[in-house]
Design goal:
This protein is 71% helix and 0% strand. By secondary structure, the chain is mostly helical. Helix 2 packs antiparallel against helix 3.
């Protein structure tokens, strides 16, 4: 069970990153492309802000994963503090 949780933690940052890219391409398809063709887009969803927030969550999660694996690779065990 512990191994599954560590795996989900270590790879879970991919989901918000994928969602961010999906939203960005959704914005291009729903709003940018019609504007280039001279049509008015009919969408009210704020794709860019949601994409930015999802990207921020993914980057924060990735930073936590990198810190975790750096700590583990440094040989730290439970309760140990690595001195610089």
């Amino acid at each position: 069970m512990k191994r599954i949780l560590v795996t989900l933690f270590a790879t879970g940052w991919l989901l918000p990153m994928w969602f961010s890219g999906h939203l960005l391409f959704g914005w291009l398809h729903a709003e940018a492309w019609p504007l280039l063709l001279g049509r008015q887009p009919l969408n009210s969803l704020d794709f860019i802000r949601l994409s930015e927030q999802s990207f921020t969550v993914g980057c924060g999660w990735l930073a936590a994963v990198v810190c975790f694996w750096t700590w583990r690779a440094g040989g730290a065990r439970k309760g140990e503090i690595i001195a610089a």
